[in-house]
Amino acid sequence: MEQGLDIRGSRVPKFAYRATDRIPSTLDRMSATSHTESRSDTDRKHVFHPFSVLQRHEQSGPRRMMVRASGSTVYDEDGRGYLDAMAGLWCVNIGYGRRELADALHDQTLRLAYYHSFSSMATDTPALLAERLIDLAPEGMSKVLYGTSGSDANDTQIKLVRLYNNLLGRPQKKKVISRRRGYHGVTIASGSLTGFDGMHQGFDLPMEGILHTTPPYRLREALPGESDADFVARLAAELDALIVAEGPDTVAAFIAEPVQAAGGVIVPPDGYFPAIQEVLRKHDVLMIADEVVCGFGRLGTWFGSDLLGIEPDLMTVAKGITSAYFPLSACLVSERVWRVLADESGERAFGHGYTYTSHPLAAACALANLDVIERDGLVAQAGERGARLNARLREAFDGHPLVGEVRGRGLIAAVEFTAGTEPTRLFDPIGRIATRVDAECLERGVITRVLPDSDTISFSPPFVITEAEIDEVVAVAREAADVVAAEIA
Fold first, then answer.
1. In this structure, is residue 445 part of a structural domain?
2. At residue 13, does pLDDT exceed 90?
3. Within 10 A of 387 (CB to CB), how many other CB atoms are there?
4. Mean pLDDT computed over 323-329
5. Residue 295 in contact with residue 218, Cβ under 8 Å?
6. Does residue 302 share a domain with residue 181?
């Protein structure tokens, strides 16, 4: 290794490379030199992990250190492969290691890595992406406002709803209704929309003006003997009563995921969203469709709204828009809402946006991602693979002593563990069975996810997962559940 001079004149190690070579990265240097500690130790000492037990992580470090991936498989630092039955966090839809996205990011980086979108300045890739999104979106969508995560996009939706009603001269019409077990993000505003007590405690959430109503969660919320139609009617009546009690002149919007993902993979009964929207229209309440997980093919259609009869006024997308190869989110705004925002604002500038709003790299990545999805027919494939996944899970867990329900739609599914059914009896403490099953799956080379406030493991693999890999995921999950059942028997 050559020695070179740094700007202070000190001797420092220098890698010898030609001008045409790639400049060595930090990881290259770690591999080429005697690094004194493992990457896991470095992580344990310095990384603040979300949704993790902080003291335990500081003491024990990461469960696994992943270093590479391909297709539906990720590999740890010891070279062991794991079938990723969760596509990261519901997001790596086209699978890992796609050259098309690497090339798109490389080319855009060299052409124009960044320029801002403030003060009517523009770059070309976000414009091209916006046109494509509007073409794909449900009827009525008009404009696209970009962000970087589902959390900030749902935070933005609240601001748009407030501005919309202020411009209409309705300063009291600001409350937003979400659902218990809904997941809409973790900022102060979007975290308030999220319907889990555990994500509110310690953060003084939810903030004022955010309300929650009952989710369409039959296993826990339906009355004994209640039909789907009666269940739907009761939930719609409950929403109507909540709006009336709060005052229709104070309730501005209702937000919902087509299928509640982190909430338990809760698939609404037929007719649920049409009944809910009838109530919303009655009280002039906007419908926000949170398509962060369901959007871009997860349910076997481009958007969950298309499948479940949702007619959104505002729509939130993220995750699958780039298959997580680059951070990007967007608020899709209907012409109905846009006309108020544009026509009633006059000459006043819209006072919202981020440094990275309309980032050209993110847009280039998204365009390449959509190209792959369309070229390879991955929306239809997600529907076909999802039908197999759900059928295999139901076959595998039919009659299992720990299982209360298997549910799903498209390429998303869940297995919920209960101590008994009819009536449903939960394990105490809640979550202890799913945590153990998930750990057994990981030991056997399959990654699932334990969902909050329930004994549920979920599955949301890449659209490129093979039929053989689906069968392996299901077989491992059943084996893991059998091991736990034997331990607690």
1. yes
2. no
3. 15
4. 98
5. no
6. yes
On the 0-12 / 13-18 / 19+ scale of CB atoms within 10 A, 24 is middle
Domain match, 302 and 393 both: no
- Could you give the CA distance from residue 233 to residue 237 in angstroms, rounded to a whole number? 6
Q: Determine, yes or no, domain membership for 106.
A: yes
Opening angle at CA 229, ends 226 and 215, nearest 5 = 80
For residue 21, the model assigns a pLDDT of 55
Mean pLDDT, residues 14-18: 40
pTM: 0.92
**What residues make up the domain containing 302?**
101-375
- pLDDT by residue (tens digit) across 30-70? 665 445 578 999 999 999 999 999 999 999 999 999 999 99
Question: How would residue 136 be classed by pLDDT, with cut points 50, 70 and 90?
Answer: very high
Q: Which residue has the higher pLDDT, 429 or 367?
A: 367
User: In this structure, are 446 and 349 located in the same domain?
Assistant: no
The residue among 64, 6, 109, 38 whose CA lies nearest residue 360 is 109
Q: Nearest Cα to 69, choosing from 87, 46, 51?
A: 87
> Which tokens is 84 given?
């990723």
Residue 398 lies in a domain: yes
Position 42: which residue type? T
Residue 9 has pLDDT above 60, yes or no: no
Pair 401, 418: CB distance under 8 Å: no
In sequence order, the 6+-apart residues with CB closer than 8 A to the CB of 383 are 299, 300, 301, 410, 411
DSSP track, 179-206: ETT----SSHHHHHHS--GGGTTTTT-S
* Closest to 400 in 3D by CA, of 431, 430, 433: 433
